[in-house]
């Protein structure tokens, strides 16, 4: 499947943290065509294996998280209005007027409502509406509603991916399905090539609720070297230049405690050879991405983090440039082709 | 002096290379097996007796900053790595990068500030580092994005026993381990010099997996809060009263039976010690004691005043007492007196 | 059942100091298990061997023994004790509470005079044990001792009121299940965990040792049925709750749906629980090694983490029944 069709399919597919079955199914189906082996583990991570020359050695691990932010149904009141429990970090100010979908026994559409403005005091309108005061209206009475949904059902934005021009796409869940798409690009690039080491491509689960899937998949694979790809803030007015990446500027290489100096040098070298633009960004705290836990796996892993510029993070209209996704995939694929046993051994600090 | 060399070297989380090299130099030719892992933890193993394998752990990284970008005029934008109170930052001297390019942290002069501004602390955006570059281009040639920045404090005695310096947390612990390893103790022992403690206790768990010890002793630096306006019931530790034995912190609840024996030994040998009396902060003891099926762990901390600042104070008697106490514990283990196998 | 719960809730056992409660539980189960051991963190691990022992991965059931407490950090000249929390304790629930120290000495908690009671913090509170000097206090307490609530277990109709129902009620349920358990094919580990209240610590290390194929925790959850409380569809007396989510775990739909199916088939009343904040041992177990399928049966509980917690007998009975039926079904799952 080509990159654009793949990213559309997975962006549209539901998969909030802990409920990734649907999107995992889409990813599995696509990767079965281009990897040697695909499996799902107990937590639901999708692990695709691409065999290399030295299969007796630990694989290289490439990770991007497949889960998206969203909600669970927390309460249904006597009139059928639904309260939400957030999964991942969501700005409640994005919610009023949003269309959502509840993935219950039946897929159920709803809109996010709030108390009408003319019933509020003028000063109330100066305040953001907290999540506790926000409810979902599915246009159904409680009895009808309870036939279709129940407490704990997953809720996502109701959004279909679209394109603002041939390269710029918008949609929900591009954090970090854009990263998963970059992994797809890696598999496409490596399809008829042989890497020195096995490459294990992992679409991880439950990143948004505490970087959980990467913990267990790293343990199972026990790699010596791993790269993760996640999204980073695209530059926009009001954001500090140093904390952001330019769209269509190529992948960001995140320099910080979670970027092994040897891995950084190699990535820069490969990018130079392949003429792939990169952006360097300093990241003082290593938290918030899969590398955080990968590095601490078992006896330690050398890690590196690439990031794709993305605007409007954690909203239903996240925006990416497909060229950045493609470049990120190409850079990682080229890296995998060059990372041999000797290189990996050399990353141990002595 | 070892502690001076160790504390003056730069080494923020993820950039511990120079500290590691220095430690390696110190430990060469001492009949130790030296090794490292992919995260950067460094190990020195000593086969000094028929005991179960023990681990001494201290972290190499210090709090500092990272180069984030450049101002048009060639000034450097930066961000803290690890927990630093930005109020201790203005007007300090720093080194940038592994080459130790000197710089100073400047702010708007007091004459140019409005009255209201003077009452609030400087924010990160108010603070810029001057490295003497006159343009962004010139600055780019000297330092790179991601380079480490550390205070350039000179370590020296300011009174007979009290030393001033940066990074006593936890290079003083590293110094203690080096000295203990060199003393050829009668036990099987691995010194683990860990990475990335200051950004989330990240290296220690990996070290515990690599070493697989039957007992771990974590040697740390901690806040001494015996300073004005701090009520006695909120003191954590007191400088000069000896190493502090941890009862509880955010990451770790100590095993009472192990602690009991440590206190008995200290009292028997007349070594000054105190209890660490607050529950704030986390240490490498946290991840170590929870690794795999659980590892018996003891936390000892050196009281440092003004920890995580460019000028902290350490009483050298406290360091000596920590070394003596650890040696006593190791001797007790060699003699079979220490209850290593006990559960909580 | 009441006698068991009384014994369990009234025992002393804050996090990291679980010896007494561990011995109480050990006595209850010593004739029921094939093997009993204690690991380094202090978890009490009881094995009930299965017929296919060793061939399939075991099932681990977990309930935590530890309770919240207050660690004494300072003794003042006049004998007042200052403390810090062991586990998440809201200061507002402590004023006027009676506490007991490991030495058996009792006392009362109060706070310094306050202009604004919403600014109450643990640092402003103290424990008065009825002494006049520091020296006198030292006869009853040493720095590092942990005090716990001193409240008797009582029955109020269908409801139980006691300290430490979080999670001694879970321990009681595990014991009741073990008492009635027929042989299953898989090995069953009944683990009474330690240090849950300070970060699911015992569950992590015991699960690493056991390497289970399935983990089931039994713990309390909040109830949304008291005046003006945040909306949450969980009530006392409406059945045991099947956890969908808390901050440590999002239950695998495989396990959640299986639990719902069994409850419906067996006509066991149940509720679904979406807990905004709080974690359980199931979360700790699920992230062990390569990842473990995990679920949690929750007992709705009012006033969690206060000296008086309240649960409903019917929910407890339902939880026992649900767990028994689940274990009898010889669940098939990967591993």
Show the helix and strand layout.
The complex is a heterotrimer of chains A (350), B (344) and C (335).
Chain A: H1 3-12, H2 21-32, E1 37-40, E2 46-50, E3 60-65, E4 70-76, E5 82-87, E6 99-103, E7 107-113, E8 135-137, H3 142-148, E9 154-157, E10 162-163, E11 168-171, H4 174-190, E12 199-204, H5 213-221, E13 225-233, E14 252-255, H6 261-273, E15 279-282, H7 290-294, E16 302-310, E17 318-321, H8 322-338, H9 341-345
Parallel strand pairs in A: 3-12, 3-13, 13-16, 14-15
Antiparallel strand pairs in A: 1-2, 2-12, 4-5, 4-9, 6-7, 6-9, 7-8, 10-11, 11-17, 14-16
Chain B: H1 2-8, H2 17-27, E1 33-36, E2 42-47, E3 54-59, E4 64-70, E5 76-81, E6 93-96, E7 101-106, H3 115-119, E8 128-130, H4 136-142, E9 148-151, E10 156-157, E11 162-165, H5 168-182, E12 188-194, H6 203-211, E13 215-223, E14 244-246, E15 248-249, E16 252-253, H7 256-269, E17 274-276, H8 285-289, E18 297-305, E19 312-315, H9 316-334
Parallel strand pairs in B: 3-12, 3-13, 13-18, 14-17
Antiparallel strand pairs in B: 1-2, 2-12, 4-5, 4-9, 6-7, 6-9, 7-8, 10-11, 11-19, 14-18, 15-16, 18-19
Chain C: H1 2-10, H2 19-29, E1 35-38, E2 44-48, E3 59-64, E4 69-75, E5 81-86, E6 98-100, E7 106-111, E8 125-128, H3 134-137, E9 146-149, E10 154-156, E11 159-162, H4 165-180, E12 188-193, H5 201-210, E13 214-222, E14 240-245, H6 253-265, E15 270-274, H7 281-286, E16 293-301, E17 309-312, H8 313-328
Parallel strand pairs in C: 3-12, 3-13, 13-16, 14-15
Antiparallel strand pairs in C: 1-2, 2-12, 4-5, 4-9, 6-7, 6-9, 7-8, 10-11, 11-17, 14-16
CATH fold annotation of the largest domain in chain A: Aminopeptidase
Mean pLDDT of chain A: 95
Secondary structure category of chain A: alpha+beta
**CATH-defined architecture of the largest domain in chain A:** 3-Layer(aba) Sandwich
Helix residue percentage of chain C: 25-40%
Percent in strands of chain A = 25-35%
Pick out the low-confidence regions of chain C: none
| CATH architecture label of the largest domain in chain C | 3-Layer(aba) Sandwich
